[in-house]
Amino acid sequence: MVTTDGHSTSSINCIFISDFFTNDLPSPGGGELSDAELIQYLESKSLNILKVRCQNVTERLIKENNFFIISNHVSLNPMFKKMLENKRYVIYEHDHKYVSTRDPSKFTNFIAPKSKLVNISFYVNAETIICKSKIHEEVIRKNLGIQNTKNIGCCLWDDKKFETLKKLQGNEKTKKVAVVESSNPTKGTKPAVQYCNNNNIDFDLISSNNPVEFLEILSQYETLVFIPQVLESFNRLCVEAKMLNCKVVTKPQLLGAASEEWFQTTGTSLIDVLIEKRNAAFKLIEGYVNNTNSKQEDGEITVILNAYRRPHLLEEQIKRVRSQTVKPKQVWIWVNDHEDLDDFDFSKLDADRIFRNDFNWKFYGRFAGALLADTEYVAMFDDDTMPGDNWFKNCLNEMSVKEGIMGGIGIELHKDDYGTHDRFGWATFNESVKEVDLVGHAWFFKRDWLQYLWREKPFMWDNGEDIQFSYLAQKYGNINTYVPPHPKDDPSKSSSLKGYEYGVDNKATSTPENHNLFYPQRDACVRNAISNGWKTVRMRSK
Asked: Which of 160, 294, 332, 382 is most exposed, with the fewest beta carbons within 10 Å of its own?
């Protein structure tokens, strides 16, 4: 097939679909500008990208091509969206087109009523949804109940724009406060003016149709006042102001960029961060075009082991994790202080990092250490847990179908305490993946999900880290918890091969003599989580 602009579809790597492209609009928006940078990058990698406006999409185009990037898609025929659901496609989301109003900020906690949700299956069936910020991704996940998202934490600027911003940083700040003059109500000119008037702030309205001239004007001001009127997925304007060393007065709860850790950075340091973020985003999306992102590769897992009272098992445990069919990048040991460790020589172990503590940080310490990992995944094990050779592969296989916290023993609660529950995992040999409320003994999760564990102070430090992690990951990240298959006839997939041998000695926290304290504590942890918004599996099934 040959398209109207002369492209042979047999040579096309990607069909890039959008309502508009930069040359269609006199003043392109942030979405169109980012699209242009992405297309330019992909073409620089010798990839053949065919740009198609939504109104020009045809049934034949979809049938005869294999991969699509979907940008703004308001005018895309619903019939074609349904056809695309049977293809490989990525949605590069610029706002919130899963909500009929395209703005979830008008709803409590940014959660739209189900009657306001649109394009649901189109988002559910995407290979991934590229999001621009943490709050952008979080709100999408909460509204749609999905995990197939990737937060790139940036917009896309070209090198020329970054160089311009660097040059303009040297401009003298001769003026005080700027407000952008725009007739577009979402740009918040009127409320920004009102804010300045209410606070007796002298300000100037600034504008220019020339992007470079606008930045030159903005660079002369000490402060930009921008009052968002919608939930901004990112907001290029405020970030460009910060790159120009301007202060920004805004509503951070409505500003996607403000949810990123780097938002407090300014000037050249911020530019350096965003160049790194941009390059990572380019590589990520290039991987989807080349269909390489779904491959299981070694080196994307950091293993965290825990040493407290069973140091004699560490050598065997390290051999087990290093013999995985999907190899970890590094093996770390978190050491909680105990007299049983006084004479143990950790230097003989095949470990990459050892955290020696002069204090017993109990259950949460290792999760704090895991924040230092620089891999996509973290695998964590209790000190009595010896995985089969295919445990990591087992977790990754399930992650590719439904992302979530994976674990070795899963608990499905019967009611609002810990006392009555069903167990799944290595002790019961579940043949298929099982959704549960919490997991323990072994964890496998994305390193970025650790942020949710620390959103709230632990209810108690002496117990319940497994409960807290699953509770907060669900509450803040819409991430559920699962036990991968533990088939009886394939021990290589098991999270724990010697649980009954190693986990029942007098060093266990949950020994019978500790039950009077251990289980009431866990009951309290469960009640705290439920009272603060945790929805158990049984609660959600009603």
From this structure: 160
Q: Which residues, 6+ apart, have CB-to-CB distance to 321 below 8 Å? A: 303, 305, 328, 331, 379, 381, 387
Helix count (H) and strand count (E) of the chain? 18, 19
In angstroms, the CA 362 to CA 334 distance is 10
* Cβ neighbourhood burial of 395 (10 Å; 0-12, 13-18, 19+): buried
Top-level class of domain 301-534: alpha beta
User: In the prediction, which pLDDT does 516 show?
Assistant: 81
Give the β-pairing of 417-425 and 405-415. Answer: antiparallel
CB 452 within 8 A of CB 475: yes
Quote the CA–CA distance of 202 and 46 in Å, as a whole number: 51
Q: CB count, 10 Å around CB of 115?
A: 7
- pLDDT, mean of each 10-residue run, the chain (542 residues): 44 96 92 97 97 98 96 98 95 97 95 96 94 95 88 95 95 97 92 97 95 96 97 97 98 96 94 95 94 68 93 94 94 93 90 94 94 96 95 89 92 94 95 94 96 96 96 94 94 93 65 73 96 94 76
Assign domain 9-151 one CATH number from 3.40.640.10, 3.30.310.170, 1.10.340.30, 3.40.50.2000. 3.40.50.2000
Q: Evaluate whether 179 touches 204 at the Cβ level (below 8 Å).
A: yes
What whole-number distance in Å separates Cα of residue 440 and Cα of residue 406?
9
Name the token pair of 503.
Answer: 């986990």
pLDDT score at 145: 85
CA-CA distance, 406 to 393, in Å (whole number)?
12
Q: What is the pLDDT of residue 510?
A: 53
Residue 342: closest CA among 354, 358, 363: 358
Q: Which residues of 375-384 are buried (b: 16+ CB within 10 A; e: fewer)?
A: bebbbbbbbb
Cβ-contact 131, 149 below 8 angstroms: yes
Contact by Cβ (8 Å): 275, 162:
yes
DSSP 349-392: S--SEEEE-SS--TTTHHHHHGGG--SSEEEEE-TT----TTHH
pTM for this structure?
0.63
- Between CA 33 and CA 55 the distance in angstroms is 20
Question: What span, in angstroms and rounded, lies between the C-alpha atoms of 244 and 265?
Answer: 11
Show Cβ contacts of residue 478 under 8 Å, excluding neighbours closer than 6 positions.
138, 141, 142, 145, 146, 147
DSSP assignment, residue 64? Answer: T
Helices 267-289 and 236-243 cross at an angle (nearest 10°) of 140
Note the Cα 281 to chain centre separation in Å. 13
Q: Where are the domains of the chain?
A: 9-151, 159-267, 301-534
Nearest to 138 by CA among 448, 436, 437: 448
